[in-house]
Amino acid sequence: MEPDEPCCSSAAERKRKSRAAESDSFRKVRLVCDRERHQSLRSLEDENLRNLRLDSQRERQQSLRSLEDKNLRNLRLVCDRERQQSLRSLEDENLRNLRLEKNRQRMAVKRSLESEQERELRLCDKRKRQSKYRRDLAQQAVRKYQASCLDLAKENKLSDLSVECMHCGALHFAEEKTRGNSFNDCCHHGKVVGLNIPEQDFPEELRDLFMKLDARHANFFDNIRHLNSSVSFASMNPLRYRYPSKRGPYCF
C-alpha cells in the first residue's frame, strides 16, 4: 500500500487546487450535481446499508471533533446555527411541521433506548438549563425595573465660546462670567498678561514645532503634557508656610 500513498496524496492535492480555482457558478453546479448523485445513491440503500453509512458518518464526525480546540468548536457551532437558520427560513408550514414531527419521533426513539443513568443525567441537565433560563429572565426583569426607576439626567447644553476676556482675549462660555468680561483662569484678571510672549519674539524652534513645520513635531505633541509638567509649578515643591492659603501657589 505504501507506493499508492503518494499517488492518493497527489490526487487529493490536485482536487483541492481544482476546487480552489472554481468560479462561483461552477461550484454551485458541482454542489447541485453532488447532492443529486448522493440522493440517488441513498434512494437505493436498504435499511442495513443506511445504518452502516450513518454509523460510519457518526464515527468520522466524532473523530474530527475530538481533534478540535475550543476556537474551532465554537466556529463550527456558529456555522451550524447559521446554516440551520438559513434552511429553516426557507421552509413553508408543511415542511416545518414535517421536520418537527421527525424530530419528535427521533427523540422518542433515542429516549426509549436510554439507560436509567443516561435518563437521570439528561433530566439533570434539563433542570440546570431551565433553572439558568429562569434566573436570567429574573435578572433581566430586575435590570429593566431598575432602569425604569432611574431619573434620567437632564441635558445641559453650554453656549458657544463667544465671550472674550477683556485682558488677554481668551474665549469663554457665557456661564463662566463672574465679573464682567474679566476671568481668573486665563490671565488672573489681567495680572499675568504682561508675561505673554509677543508673537514676534516667540522662539523659532517652538513655533516650528507648534506649526508642525519641524520634522520632530509628532514626537513633540505625543509628549507635550510631560514637557509642560516638567517646567510648570506641578514639578516644584514650594514651602506651604510661605503662602497665606497654606495650599501652595495657584497652579493649573
Tell me how many strands there are.
2
- How confident is the prediction overall: mean pLDDT? 82
Report the principal-axis shape. elongated
> How much strand?
under 5%
Helix-strand makeup class: mainly alpha
Region (Disordered): 1-24
Description:
With 252 residues, the protein is mostly helical. The chain contains ten helices and two strands. Among the domains are: 1-42, no CATH class; 184-252, no CATH class. The relative contact order is 0.02. The termini are far apart. 62% of the residues lie in helices and 2% in strands. Strands 1-2 form a two-stranded antiparallel sheet.
Write the layout of secondary structure elements.
Blueprint: H1 4-20, H2 24-43, H3 47-66, H4 70-89, H5 93-112, H6 116-149, E1 163-164, E2 171-172, H7 184-187, H8 204-210, H9 217-222, H10 224-230
Antiparallel strand pairs: 1-2
Region (Disordered): 1-24
